[in-house]
């Protein structure tokens, strides 16, 4: 993931909004740092949607009380220092890393990596909450009150995934007894999950569904990426981390009802190719697609993203984006499990993107993450999350 210091962006946007001349703000600047700002600005303007969002974020930031602004800047600086510490450790050779661990024990850089991962996971979980839950977190006292509120929300989400019989039994208990019973049930659940991994193994390193997922990811990779990942086959932790990184950047998505993969410009429908070629040079640069050629669904997603820069309403069904077009196993899971867990506002979100690609399958994936369930063929299998370096727990507890 690419991180940018909030302070840099805010400073730059201050110039943008105040002067209103984004193209030439630093045209005459000689200072090296100002040249970096100019380069960053150019990159940001390449995506109108991203640029406008940053301007909106800046205005929101300026509207906050000074005390709140300082808190956010301090947080941003703390995150930046974590990133520097972690990146510094990662650039060392393997032998130096091992030597440092032996002499210094647990390093700040290792802790930085763990904290960054927690930060990212929490951000994804928080963004998926409805506004009512976000408001309850905002009102809670800091920090103990917010931690208590987070645990309360997680417990509520966990209870929402229980079979009706178990949920009814819990709700009949008084608050104290219910809390004890929930702790017991969660421990039993963890034991069952752990045991199920051992029972399902079929002579290989991974469960059958995990093997299928890894095969899907490999089908999407370039020859260079395949060669890179092939060297890590015997290094389980590094191999799993790379698979998860690839899956996050380019998640596997089901094909459309015709079973067509769009991998090259010549594969595109004539009307889509014509619209792509009609875009102005500043909106579309051929190399953006070249790097994703022969990759599914990265190439089709790239085409969609580029055209939507000038035509936000653009939509073409490159892949399955309606319930009835989903593969049978995914459709059965969504209908019998995922839909039953969704709140009314989540169902509305899903309905609004049905028929849009890749919005619909990605929304399914995100909702499954919120409710901690696995959609076959789309979601990352729990086994891989368990095996990820750092012993990340399979579920948010």
Structure in words:
The chain is mainly α. Among the domains are: 6-126, no CATH class; 128-161, no CATH class; 323-376, no CATH class. Helices cover 65% and strands 0% of the residues. It has 20 helices and no strands. It has helices at 6-19, 32-45, 48-63, 66-90, 94-104, 108-127, 131-139, 144-160, 164-171, 175-200, 208-219, 223-230, 236-249, 270-277, 287-290, 298-308, 328-341, 344-353, 359-370, 382-387. The longest helix has 26 residues, at 175-200. The two termini are 25 Å apart. Residues 1-30 and 389-397 have low confidence and may be disordered.
Mean pLDDT: 76
Gross geometry = globular
- Strand count: 0
End-to-end span in angstroms?
A: 25 Å
Quick synopsis:
Helices cover 65% and strands 0% of the residues. The chain is mainly α and 397 residues long.
Break the fold down into its secondary structure elements and pairings.
Layout (H helix, E strand, L loop, with lengths): L5 H14 L12 H14 L2 H16 L2 H25 L3 H11 L3 H20 L3 H9 L4 H17 L3 H8 L3 H26 L7 H12 L3 H8 L5 H14 L20 H8 L9 H4 L7 H11 L19 H14 L2 H10 L5 H12 L11 H6 L10
Helix pairs in contact: 4-6, 7-8, 18-19
Question: Main traits of this protein?
Answer:
mainly alpha, single chain
């Amino acid at each position: 993931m690419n991180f940018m210091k909030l302070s840099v962006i805010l400073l730059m946007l201050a110039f943008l909004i105040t002067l209103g001349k984004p193209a030439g703000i630093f045209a005459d600047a000689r200072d090296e740092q100002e040249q970096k700002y100019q380069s960053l600005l150019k990159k940001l303007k390449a995506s109108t949607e991203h640029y406008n969002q940053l301007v909106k974020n800046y205005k929101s930031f300026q509207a906050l009380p000074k005390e709140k602004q300082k808190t956010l800047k301090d947080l941003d600086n703390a995150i930046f220092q974590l990133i520097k510490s972690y990146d510094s450790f990662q650039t060392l050779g393997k032998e130096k890393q091992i030597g440092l661990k032996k002499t210094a024990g647990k390093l700040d850089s290792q802790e930085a990596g763990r904290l960054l991962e927690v930060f990212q996971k929490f951000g994804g979980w928080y963004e998926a909450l409805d506004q009512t839950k976000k408001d309850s977190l905002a009102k809670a006292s800091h920090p103990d009150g917010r931690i208590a509120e987070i645990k309360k929300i997680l417990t509520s989400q966990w209870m929402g995934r229980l079979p009706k019989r178990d949920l009814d039994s819990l709700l009949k208990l008084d608050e104290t007894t219910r809390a004890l019973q929930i702790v017991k049930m969660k421990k039993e659940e963890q034991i069952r999950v752990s045991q199920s991994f051992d029972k399902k193994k079929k002579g290989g390193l991974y469960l059958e569904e995990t093997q299928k997922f890894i095969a899907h990811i490999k089908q999407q990779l370039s020859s260079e990426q395949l060669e890179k990942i092939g060297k890590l086959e015997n290094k389980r932790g590094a191999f799993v981390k790379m698979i998860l990184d690839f899956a996050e950047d380019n998640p596997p998505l089901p094909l459309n009802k015709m079973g067509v993969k769009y991998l090259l410009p010549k594969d595109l429908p004539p009307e889509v190719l014509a619209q792509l070629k009609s875009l102005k040079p500043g909106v579309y640069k051929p190399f953006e697609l070249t790097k994703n050629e022969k990759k599914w669904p990265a190439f089709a997603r790239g085409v969609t993203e580029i055209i939507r820069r000038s035509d936000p309403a653009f939509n073409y069904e490159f892949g399955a984006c309606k319930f009835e077009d989903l593969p049978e196993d995914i459709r059965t899971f969504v209908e019998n499990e995922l839909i039953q867990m969704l709140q009314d506002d989540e169902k509305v979100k899903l309905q609004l993107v049905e028929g849009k690609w890749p919005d619909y399958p990605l929304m399914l994936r995100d909702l499954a993450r919120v409710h901690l369930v696995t959609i076959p063929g789309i979601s990352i299998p729990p086994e891989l999350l368990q095996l990820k370096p750092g012993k990340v727990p399979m579920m948010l507890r």
